Structure formats: C-alpha cells, structure tokens
Amino acid sequence: MVSSLLVIVFSCVVLAWFRTSREPGRNGDVPRNRIAPKLASAAVLLFALFLASGALASEAELKIPDLSTVSFLGMTGHNLLVWGLLFCLLGMVFGFVQYMQIRNLPVHKSMREISELIWETCKTYLITQGKFLAILWAFIAAIMVVYFGFLLHYATIQVVIIVVFSIIGILGSYGVAWFGIRINTYANSRTAFAGLAGKPFPTMAIPLKSGMSVGMMLISVELVMMLFILLYIPGDYSGPCFIGFAIGESLGAAALRIAGGIFTKIADIGSDLMKIVFKIKEDDVRNPGVIADCTGDNAGDSVGPTADGFETYGVTGVALITFIILAVPDMVVQVQLLVWIFVMRIGMIITSALSYYVNGAIIKAKYGDAAKFNFEHPLTSLVWLTSLVSIGMTFVLSYLLVPELAGDGTLWWKLSAIITCGTIAGALIPELVKIFTSTNSGHVREVLTASREGGASLNILSGFVAGNFSAYWLGMAIITLMAIGYAVSTAGLAGIMAAPAIFAFGLIAFGFLGMGPVTIAVDSYGPVTDNAQSVYELSTIETLPNISEEIKKEFGFTPDFENAKMYLEENDGAGNTFKATAKPVLIGTAVVGATTLIFSIIQVLTKMFGGPAVSAGLSILNPVFLLGLITGGTTIYWFTGASMQAVTTGAYRAVEFIKANINLDEGAEKASVTDSKRVVEICTQYAQKGMWNIFLAVFFSTLAFACVNHYFFIGYLISIAIFGLFQAIFMANAGGAWDNAKKLVETELNMKGTDLHDATVVGDTVGDPFKDTSSVAMNPIIKFTTLFGLLAVELAIELPVATSRIAAAAFFAVAVVFVWRSFYSMRIKTGGSEDEQLPAEPEKARG
Questions:
Q1: Do 600 and 239 meet the contact criterion of CB atoms below 8 Å apart?
Q2: Helix or strand or coil: residue 405?
Q3: Is residue 831 classed exposed, middle or buried when 0-12, 13-18 and 19+ CB atoms within 10 A define those classes?
C-alpha cells in the first residue's frame, strides 16, 4: 500500500514538473516561485508516508548531562561555562570596537564614494540571497518537522524550538557574513587611502585589523549560540537543537559559499577578459564589469568564507558533542569532556587576541617606518605565534580542568597532544600552501616561465602541475598528523569511550581550528587588499584637480601616488596567498570532522543490528559498501562541473554585455552606474540559477542514497569526503598559482598589456572558478550532506525494504532532473532563445 502511494506521489511530482517546465518563465527557465512549492510539498508527502514506521531516533538519545554535577576549579561545570559566556561577549565587544575604529579611519571622499557604491551592490546581493535562503530552508524544515514531530512524537513546543534553532543557525551564517562584508567595504577604501601616505605598513595593518574583527566576532557569536543551547535548553532535547542548529548553519554556508563563488568568478572573468580584448588596464573605470568584480570579491571572498568559517566551527563542535554523548558511557566523564572542550574553544578567543596584540607590537617596531617589506611576513608571524600560544594554552587548561579523567592522571596530556596535532596542521598547512601559491614560490615562477614561450597553454599545464603536487604534500601532512593522533589515542582512551581513534580525529579537526579568529583574519585579508586596489583606480584620485593640496590641507600629508599603487598591488599578492592558505584548513576540518559525524550513524546501526553485523557491512568485501565508496566520486565531479558551468555561462553573458556597452570613446570617463548594476544583475541571476540546481540535486541525492542501503550510504559519505579533499586542494592551489603568476607579471616585471600578461590572464581566468568556486564549496557540501544524512539514514532504516527501494528510486529520479538541469539548462544559448538575450557580439566596442 505504502509503495503504491509512493509511486503515485512520485508520478504526480514528475507530471507537475514537466507540465511546469513547459510554462516558460524569464529566459525559458522554470520560475522558482512555481517550482519550489511543488518540490517542497513532494518532499513532505514522501516523508509523511513513512509515518507508519517507528524510528530508532539517535537524536532522541543525545541528552546533554547535567553540567552542575561535576566541579572544575572550585565551581560547577555550568557556572564555569557561564563565566566563559562572558568572555565570548567580550570577544564580540572586541570585534565591534575594531569595526568602529576602521570605520572612523581617514579616507578621501572620492574613495569613500566608491566603497559605498560597492557596499550598496553588496547589500542588494545579500538581501537577494537572504530571500533565496528562506526558500531553501523550507525543504529542511519540512523534513525536521516530520521527523521530530511525527516519527519521534516530540511535543509541539519541542519541535518548534528545534526548528527555531535551525533558523538561528542560518541567521548566524547570514549575520556574520553581513558583518564581514560591511567592515570589508569600510576597510577597502581606508586601505587604499592609507597607501598614499608613502609607507606600506598601514596598507597591511588595516586589512589585518578588519580580518581580526571578523574573526573575533564570528567565533564569539558562534560560541554564544552554542553555549546558550548547552546551558539553557533542557538536556532532553538540547541534542536535537544542536543538530538543527548545525544543519541550519551548514545550509546557510553552502548556499552563500556556492552562490558567492559563482557570482565572484562571473564578475572576475568578465572584467579580466576585457584587459585582453581591449588592452585596457586593470580596474579601468570605463569597464562596467569592475564594480561587479568588486562586489564579487566580497560576495565570494568575504560572504562565502565568513559563513563557511561560522559553519565549520559550529559543525565541528556539534560532531564532538554527538560523539561524547553516544560513545562515552560514564556520565561524569561526559560532563568533564564537554566542559573541557568548550573551555578550550573559549580559550581560542583569548589566545588569538593576545597573539594579535603581541604580534602587532613586534611588526610595528620592525616594519612601521620601512619603505618596503614582504607583506607575507607579518601574517606568517601572526599564524605561528598564535599556534605556539594555543598549544601552550591547550596543555595548561587541560591540566587545570581534567588532571584526572576517569582516575587516569595521564589522559590530560594525551588529549592535549592530539589537539596539538591539529593546531600544528593549522600553521603547517599554510606554509605548505605557500610553496605552491606564493609570489616567491618556485611553482608560481615555473608557471610564469612556462608562459614566456608557451603562452596560455603551458601556463595552464604548469598550474595543473602545481595543484597536483600540492595535493600530494598537503595530503601526506594531514595523514601524518592524523596517524600521530591515532597512535596517541591507543594509549588509554579506549578505557573511557568506544572508538577512541574517531574521537582523536575529531579532536584533530578541533585543533585545526584552534587559532580560529586568526585563521579567519588572514582569510579575510585578501578581499580587502583586492578591493583596495580597485577602489584606488576607480576613484581616479590622481586626476582630481588640486588633489595634492587638498589632501595636504585636510589630512596633513603629501600623497605619494606612485608608491601607493605599488604597495596596493604587492599587498594584493599577499592577500591572494593567504586566501589560498585558509582553504585547505577548512576543507581539512570538513573531512577529518566528517569521520566523527559518520561514527554517529555507525552507532545507530550498531545498536540496531549488533557490532558483528555492522563490521561485516562496513567491510570492503561487502559489495554494497564498495559501491557506495565509488558513488561518492560521481557526486564530487558532477558538483565541480555544475558549479563551473554556472560560472562559464554567466561569464559569457557578462562578457557579451560588457563588450556591447563599454565606452572607450576619447573623453569617456566612467562606466555608467546603470551598466555596472546590470552586470551585477547578470552575476546574481546565474549564481542563483546554479545554486538552485546544485542544492536540490544534493538534497535529493542524499535522500536517495540513504534509502538505498545504510552501508551504501556510509560508503558514499566516506567517499565524498576523500574525493572532495583532494579535488579541493588540487583546484585551490592550482588556481592560486595561476593568480600569483599573473600578479608577478603586473608587479615585479611591470609587463601589463604584453603577450606574456595576456597568457597569465587567461591562466588566471581558468584558475578563478578552480580556487574560488568549486574547491571552496566542497567544505560545506561535505558537511551539509553528512549532517543531513544523520536524519535521512535514520528515517530510511525503519522503512520496509520494498518501500525503501521505491523511495530511493523516486528521490534519485528527482535528483537526476536537477543534475541534468545543472548543465543542459545552464548551457550557453544563442540565437535569441532567452528572453533577455543580450546583443550579439559587436564588431568592436564604441571607440
């Protein structure tokens, strides 16, 4: 009966889909406001048909123990974390004070006007994305209501609280992204103006200050939300609240990361290619794509990473909480470990702030009056100083909080040693990344050398080499540190928990993030330096009448235009490098942390089927498990192609429009605001089209594969993590090498407008979606799939076999529709097939 109903419901969904698909909307695409209700309703109906079955409900078992039952440093665990909450609020104050200080820095009105224009377009983008997120959230909310309300029979108020926390998770990702983009659009013009004073130090200090503000605010807000759940939500359903919160922030991060990555690279490619087509300079004010490029720098390199970082820290914490509750039988040890982990997380706020001020004093004394220095050095010293301070704090706090864990006086330093493996990785990985992406690296100079005689062809091939080599060395570094953590976990942890190696991997992921605010700060450095260079050019400050006298009178110094441009360009190279260094850290946490989340699913299966049966099911000899391992690779490679197809089509439309509307007539001053906003609209349109197809394909694929078989699904989750890790590292570092090879031509060689420059620009446009679209979105995709999979697989386990197979087929068919649409609906269409078909490529631009 249930199977028949599923077939009927699915048939209705398909008929509704194809009927609606024949009702063309704008551009021949199906309007989202007609499709969303149909698919959301379909998802609800399919799961509503599962109500006849009971559910195992591991989330129901995620009951947080009473933290008041154990004392730490003379106070209960609950009271200690309340004090920790105060430190988190102080961290938020720190971030806000930094924000106000940057806003109040001096800036010339010509630069401020450009940064405010960028902010206005960014704000429009964020509002549009917020509405889009609300639609995506409806899918997840429907599943959560059915699961917790009908299957687990939670009280209405409990379901409401859980759903509310999923909204809080999304709003957390969205809110910190908003904060990050606002402070960055203050910092960009202040950085550009500071360079005019004739010293390079302020052009480094301002972006770093902006980044620390974002980092401290992000970590502090994250911890306030999680501590509120831990301290004030009743233990019986605080576990599900954590799951809802994590799914919400993961959804927000995935949407903002993917859409932002598509947006920024459409704009970047559209703007960059004009340098080749028309031989115009970087950030030429006549190019209507430049404002969109600046907006994209923030949408992709500020909004995306900030939301991603927020989600990464939250999901890693939820993974560890879930493990402790499920794998540690002793309630006292559970409390000890939970309090210990949260105090360590709070400690990262203190160590990061301390390291920032100490490093600031050192680098100011060393570089404050220097006429030239390597912009990478102050950032590198900050990362290593914070790493060393964090390691010391880890051992001190562990000794103070858990000197005796379950009667064992050695476990405190063993746990600290495992976290230290991750903290070392957080500092070592950026150093390895610099070997392949820094302007001083041999690999980047090899890309440049190959371009001299081989043009764009050898430039691209050499970048592929850098990316592939980087995946080997970074992979080996991560594996080595995980192996050390595993070895330490064998020395006594088995006495207090099941699967201690999995806990060790989770702690290593935690250690990756041990310098949280600093990791976010050096990542946020890049979009500010990139925008600062653009703001300088777009302001046309050098051409303003009597500008030197005006600046001297109003700000008290004579501007040094030539050196200012040089500082900004060199600083942008450092920004490119450190944007690249943060990406493997975040993807590494996704993969290492995913093992902890996957363990939660294995625990459910063990309780249901027994340990021996689960061990056999997860054996490589089980063909179902093996098929799952293979299937994950298909999703990663499809996702890579789908995200890049959205960039390709969008960039084609942007280039088409810019070519038709750029005004190069003699005497032309600036591109019109109308044309610039039209390019922004094109970028937004294709970013949302691409994101829509990708999200729904991932959503329904997760449901389908969970219903196929639980062992198949675990294999699938492991596979997307492994394939995704190496695909992301390869793409991110290849893109970084291409980007900085171009930067060397522009700064060190000063050969803009030459054939060599053209070759490196082509390589950079290939690298753009590599490093800033596909690679960076692997992280939230992996974590969203794993988190949502926790719910999906538990729903699927209880279904009769026949019903499960039919549901798998139904969901997979819907997923395939969106996989199909991610290419065939996104292809470049010509010949007037789209309503907004832009003019055909002109023979030449005006002028």
A1: no
A2: strand
A3: exposed
> Helix H segments across 195-234?
201-232
- For 670, list phi and psi in degrees, rounded to 5: -135, 155
Candidates 254, 253, 260, 352; CA nearest to 310 is 253
Residues 6+ apart with CB under 8 A from 11: none
Tokens of 232: 């004030």
d(CA 289, CA 679): 6
The rounded distance, in Å, linking the Cα atoms of 146 and 159 is 9
State how far the alpha carbon of 274 is from the alpha carbons of 278, 286, 429, 452, in Å. 6, 11, 35, 21
- Beta carbons of 453 and 724 less than 8 angstroms apart: no
Q: How many C-beta atoms surround the C-beta of residue 314 within 10 A?
A: 26
Of 331, 424, 409, 350, nearest to 63 by C-alpha is: 331
Gap between the Cα atoms of 455 and 272, Å rounded = 17
Give the count of beta carbons closer than 10 Å to the beta carbon of residue 801: 8
Q: How many residues does the chain have?
A: 847
Alpha helix positions (H), 709-770: 710-746, 755-769
Residues 208-253: tens digit of each pLDDT: 999 999 999 999 999 999 999 999 988 777 888 888 898 899 888 8
Both structure tokens of 135: 């639609």
Torsion over CA: 648, 649, 652, 657 (sign): negative
Better-predicted residue by pLDDT, 113 or 136: 113
Beta pairing partners, 663: 846
What are 31's two structure tokens?
């309007």
Count CA within 13 A, CB hemisphere, residue 41.
12
pLDDT in tens, 437-481: 998 899 999 999 999 999 999 999 999 999 999 999 999 999 999
> Which among 748, 438, 725 is positioned nearest to 574, based on CA atoms?
438
In the numeric block, which tokens belong to residue 48?
Answer: 């509503």
**One-letter amino acid of 817:** V
Residue 55 sits at φ, ψ, to 5 deg, of: -130, 150
Q: Per DSSP, which regions of 272-369 are E strands?
A: none
* C-alpha–C-alpha distance, residues 113 and 107, integer Å: 10
Contacts of 507 (CB under 8 A, 6+ apart): 320, 415, 418, 419, 422, 485
Buried b (16+ CB within 10 A) or exposed e, 728-758: bbbbbbbbbbbbbbbbbbbbeeeebeeebbb
Residue 381 structure tokens? 């010293």
Which of 800, 542, 699 minimizes the C-alpha distance to 138?
A: 699
Token duo for residue 421: 């493996």
CA distances from 497 to 409, 500, 503 (A): 16, 6, 9
**Centroid of chain to Cα 74:** 40
Dihedral sign of CA atoms 221, 226, 232, 237 in order: positive
- CB contact set of 173 (below 8 Å; sequence gap of 6+): 248, 249, 252, 253, 256, 307, 310, 311
CA 780 to chain centre: 6
Give the other-Cβ count within 10 Å of 273's Cβ: 19
Enter the DSSP assignment of 846.
B
3-class secondary structure, 465:
helix
Could you tell me which of 281, 304, 327, 578 has the C-alpha nearest to residue 439?
578
Q: The tokens 């409806």 sit on which residue?
A: 138
Residue 330 DSSP one-character state: -
- Return the half-sphere exposure (C-beta side, CA atoms, 13 A cut-off) of residue 365: 6
DSSP 76: E
Q: For residue 297, what are its two tokens?
A: 């720098």
User: Exposed (0-12), middle (13-18) or buried (19+): which is 157, by Cβ within 10 Å?
Assistant: exposed
Confidence of residue 765 (pLDDT cuts 50, 70, 90): very high
pTM value surpassing 0.85: yes
Give dist(CA 358, CA 384) in Å, integer. 12
Distance set, CA 367 to CA 200, 202, 370, 372, 575 (Å) = 8, 10, 5, 8, 18
